[in-house]
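Hi support team,

I'm opening this ticket because the web form for multi-chain structure prediction keeps timing out on my end. I have pasted the exact lines I submitted so you can reproduce it. The total is 225 residues across two entries, so I didn't expect it to be a heavy job. Is there a limit I'm missing, or should I split the entries? Thanks in advance, R.K.
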Amino acid sequence: MLILTRKMGQSVIIGGNIEINILEIEEDKVRIGVNAPKEISILRKELIEVKDENTKAVQINKEILSRLENFIKKS
Amino acid sequence: MIVSTKNFGSIEYDPNDIIYFREGIPGFETLHNFLILTDNSQNIPFKWLQSLDETDIAFAIIEPESFKPDYTVEITDEIIKVLDIEDLNHLLIFVIVVIPEEIEKITANLKAPIIINAENNKAVQVILENEKYLIKHPILEELKNAYSNS
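Hello R.K., no limit was hit. The queue was backed up. Here is the completed structure from your submission:
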């Protein structure tokens, strides 16, 4: 991983057309601004993780829940 | 109204019971209308969040307080706006459960609870800032503590 130190108001450019701006620094939070072409999607990483998790969650059905119930009852 | 469901065949429901996710659910952004179904044959109080738009989609959900009494959700101004909340007492909180092949590895997504305003049935899945809460929080031991003797 490339690590850079930036101050408030400074930015980095990625690939010539994506600019990441450090707008504000609080105690444990950083506000960043992103300038990028429209076709590039910008998402919080947690959102992608939650999407993946939701996709896994719908594999479940009633029989699996019943198996879990029995498993817990016996233990 | 009649709808076919993933787990309970065709059921009759009251349109007033429809839970509405304006933004859908992450990964299922086109699904907006859901029902909450209760299966009384179960000992552990899981419920089903059944999609009305795509009948094969149903999430198993549970109220986190039922196994983790200290669970708390910070209701931000943004959530208040999205759900038109007037009274915080009318909120229902659920978390989505994932059961992999090895069922003892069951997890609940404590990081991204589902919040429902029971006054208008508007709902949203939010991602909490709280770093204590994991997307894959193991819950087998907590479920055992809460339900194995009942």
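A quick check on our side: Helices of chain A lie at 45-57, 62-74. Let us know if the file doesn't open in your viewer.
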